[in-house]
């Protein structure tokens, strides 16, 4: 595209140039992306000779949306600055949320502790030592009311990183809003609810895949009717990448999961356009600047093309890949942690240039502990500086037309299609999980990456080069161990003060329904309104659905 | 007995599912010629200790990224002693602050902690050295 001189002339000149360059010394034997993909010294019009502007790029807000999902992108409204946070108890987290909102953050993102993520109440033996450690502990409606105290749920949107027990936490949120007088149709937000990537990478599963998918399609159906502004799944590549995958694997596996949810919804009898507009995505932003930007651009194009051509979506909103981005936790280093501010800034810039809808920037100390308030503020300021000072939000998709970026975008799409074929050969995502395919691919990539660092084929500043013996110069957040006891007391008090007959009846009704075909969401809502705890509800499902076991491979 | 390979149990206690580090280390130890058993995820301290005894390992490597290290390390060491397996060495890695590392080591609840950024070759060398010392110590005693 866009040649004044012919390709033949460019090709001739390129060959001459290559010959000359070949005689010059190079500072490295090989040049590759963070995903170990070789990078050429130069990209020219030859690399995008088949690119068709209207077919492959088109305008922002037009199919296949390579240049962005909205017509005006950040000229209309900046991305949502959404910092993921939560720790200790609902009260402490509520204070942090109100602080973040007062500092100009525009949406909330809740991090839960491990017992909540795994469906155990804080006083369960398996919760020992883990209450409030990596996120906030939520056991019942009582905690959820505290978590959102003085935060009007009709004014803000909330993202909740919760998967296996997502239906329960979502119901807790809806019930909390009811108590504030906010009806479900006014609620906006996201539940991660992406169980497939749990089996693949993040490994916080509870039930086997089939009943897990049933809970997800129940959510699709309930949301379409009652909570229409809610994003019912945030199909996540983030954790796949953190587990060690390459950029292409992140993209291909995430999209494959997305298509699997679409197929599950269709198989459950839903029209694709009733639920697909509420599917959203969540990607990682790692250190390789151009590779990441190409990944986001390719993601939009692949999703739109398949949704239209393969799944017959007619509603334009079903074709739009809207995504959240988080900078790469795995790229941060425990050594010289202040350097992580710089890493995060470049990663955030890539996400913005890739057209993200919302963004979380990691804090410099997250490789050591949960972040302090100061570290979180710097992370948020990083986004504000990009938005207000760098000028990158002034024009849409500014890297379009770059020979390199367009060639990489095409390459991403091609490599993805190859992975789709391999997954298809297993019979789809679930059989591929069962065969350990994704898990092995990711483990291999993670090992290769580590080997590259150890052989110094890859330099990580402060880790295998530019090393200093400086003492750690930053303060870390400490979680008071007494929090566990306090939270245990709180959940016990809820069990003592609620109407236990009503609660038991509602749990029994849920148990009956779980073995039948009815939508479970109304019954979960009834149970949480009666202050049934998360652990009690999940135990009902454990009894009926069973639990998942992984074959450990390395 | 000099030919016996070093036997390592790589374990993921606690509720978190972050197994990247555990798997990379397990593979590096195996590539370095050790016998490696990996427990898989979500293990209780009881399950870890049972596996360690059953597999007759020399050393347990705990990977903890859930912040629960200050309860899990002591619990595992306590269980090892209760089961007369106190000679199994315990090391670990994960998101563990410096201050906690000092405390775990000084209380004898860990022999070494390797934080993010550690080269796997460093862990391999450390284990080999520790096992050599253990053997020569035993020979010295008997």
Describe this entry's structure for a reader:
The complex is a heterodimer of chains A (554) and B (142). With 554 residues, chain A is α/β, with parallel strands linked by helices. Chain A has 22 helices and ten strands. A five-stranded parallel β-sheet of chain A has the order 1-10-9-8-7. A five-stranded parallel β-sheet of chain A has the order 2-3-4-5-6. In chain A, strand 2, helix 3 and strand 3 form a beta-alpha-beta unit. The radius of gyration of chain A is 24 Å and the shape is globular. Chain B has 142 residues and is α/β, with parallel strands linked by helices. Chain B has a five-stranded parallel β-sheet, with helices on both faces. Chain B is globular.
Please identify which CATH superfamily of the domain at 71-454 in chain A we are dealing with.
Answer: Methylmalonyl-CoA mutase
Looking across the biggest beta sheet of chain A, what order are the strands in? 1-10-9-8-7
CATH class type of the domain at 71-454 in chain A: Alpha Beta
Helix content bin of chain A? 40-55%
> Counting H and I runs of at least 4 residues, what is the number of helices of chain B?
5
Helical percentage of chain B:
40-55%
- Strand and helix order of chain B: EHEHEHEHEH
CATH structural fold name of the domain at 71-454 in chain A: TIM Barrel
The name of the CATH superfamily of chain B reads Cobalamin-binding domain
| Major β-sheet annotation of chain A | 5 strands, parallel
Count of spatially separate domains of chain B: 1
**Structural class by sheet pairing and helices of chain B:** alpha/beta
